[in-house]
Amino acid sequence: MGEHMAAQGAGIGTVEQLEHPPAVTPPWPCPAKSWYVVGVLLLAYTLSFIDRMVLSLLVAPIRAALDISDTQVSLLIGLAFALFYTLLGLPLAWIADRYNRRNLILVGIAVWSFMTAGCGFAGSYATLFAARMGVGVGEATLSPAAYSMLSDYFPRDKLARAMAVYSIGVPLGAGIALILGSFVVQAVLAAPMVDMPFFGAMDAWRLIFVWVAAPGLLIALLMFTVREPLRRGRQAAGPAPIASAASTPGLIAHLRTQRSALGALFGGMSLIGLVMYGAIAWIPTFFARTYGMDVADAGLWFGVIMAVGGTIGLLVGGSLADHLYAKGVADAHLRVMRLSILLGGPPLLATVLMPDPTLAFVMLALAYPCMTLHGVGGVALQLITPNEYRARMTALYFFVVNLVGLGFGPMLIALLTDNLFQDDAALRYSIATVTAIALPIAAIILTLGFKGFARELARMSAEAGAAPA
Q1: How distant, in Å, are the alpha carbons of 14, 65, 199, 318, 343 from that of 272?
Q2: pTM of the full predicted structure?
Q3: Which residues pair with 327 in a beta bridge?
Q4: Which of 118, 225, 276, 390 could bridge across to 131 with cysteines, CB 3.0–4.6 Å?
Q5: Is residue 121 helix, strand or coil?
Q6: Is the residue at 6 inside a domain?
Q7: Contact between 150 and 28 (Cβ < 8 Å)
Q8: What is the separation of C-alpha 344 from the centre of its chain, rounded to a whole number of angstroms?
C-alpha cells in the first residue's frame, strides 16, 4: 500500500525501490533542475535527427564511392534505420521501465554517435548498412526513456510545456539538416578529398559523418549531470511491474482497458504523421518540379520554416494544452491535436496548389507552426499510462506512428504520382490528395476519442488519489 520511488542505481542496474508511508508525497524536483534536464535531452534529440538525416544529404558521393543503386541507397536511408529503430524500441523500453533511464540514454547516445562516425569509415555497402542499423538501435533508447523521465520531473499541469520543448528537437534537427544540406553538397563537390592525421587522404563525405557524430560525445558527458528521477505513481513494489491482477493489470490488459482513448491517440497521430512525413520527404522536390526551383534552395527555405515554425508550434501547443488542462478541460491534449489539423490543414493543402513559389512558401510558413501543435500527443499518452508501462507505451506509440507515417507517408505520395496520375509534374496533386483525405479522418478519430480519454484520465487520477488537474 505504500508509495514507492526509484533511487538512482549504478550503471544500468536494477532501480532500487524505497517505500514511503501512504501520507508522504515526495516533493517535485526543483524547477531549475527539471528544466536543465529538458535542455540536455533537447540537445540529444536535436543531434539524433541530424545524425539520422545526414546520409540522405550525401546520396551522390556515396553512390559513386560504393557503386550502389538508388534502391540500395533508399534501404540505407529507410529500412536499415527505421526497422531497427522501431522494433528494438520495444525491448529497450522494457529496460527503461525497469532500470536506470538516465544511463540507458547515455549508452544510447554513445552508440548512435559511434555508429554515425562508423558510417564514414564503411568500406562496403554491407558495413554501411550495419552502421546505419547501429544508429537506429542507439536512437531507439532516447524518446521512450526521456518521456518516462520527464513525467517524473514535472507535475501534470506543467508536463506539456516540458515535452514540447524536448520535442523541438524534431523540427530543429530536421531543419538544421536541410539547411546544412544546401551547403554540404557544394562543399563535398568542391573538396572531394581531405588530408586527415593518421588516416591520410579521406573522402570529404566520409569526414562529414565524423563531424556530426563528434558532438554526441559531449552530450553523453552532459548526461552524467542528469539524475535519475524518483518514479512516481508506481502501483507495485520491486524493480518490475509485479502486482496482483486486481491492482496492476498486465500491459495487454491495460491496452484492452484503454482501447478507446489509445485508439484515438494512435489513430489520429498516425494519420497526422502520414501527412507530415510525406510532406517532409516530397516538398523540396515539389518546388523543383512545379516551379523549376533548385532542390537545394527549396530545401534551405523549407529547413528554415521547419526549424522556426516547428519550434513556435510546439511551444504554443504545449502551453495551450497546459492552460486548458489546468482549467479542468480533461481532454485538452486531444483538442489541441485536433486544433492543429483545423488550423494547419487548409494552408498546407493550399501550399501545393499555389500558382507561384512565393505564395507557396507563405502558405507553408502559415501551415507548419499550426500543424506542429499536435506535439502534445505524447503528453496525453503519459497522463493515462501507469508509471510501470510508460516507456513501453511510448515505444509502442512511436512504433505505430513511425510505421504508418515514416513507412507509408512518402511511399503513398509516390505511388499516387506513379500509378494514379502517371506524371512526375503531378506530385502536387498527390500531396494534396493525401492531405485532403488523411487529415479530416484524423480529426474525426480524435473527436470520437474525447470522452474515452477523459474517462481514462479520471480513472487514473482516482487510482492515484489525485484530482485530474
Answers
A1: 37, 37, 46, 17, 13
A2: 0.76
A3: none
A4: 118
A5: coil
A6: no
A7: no
A8: 19
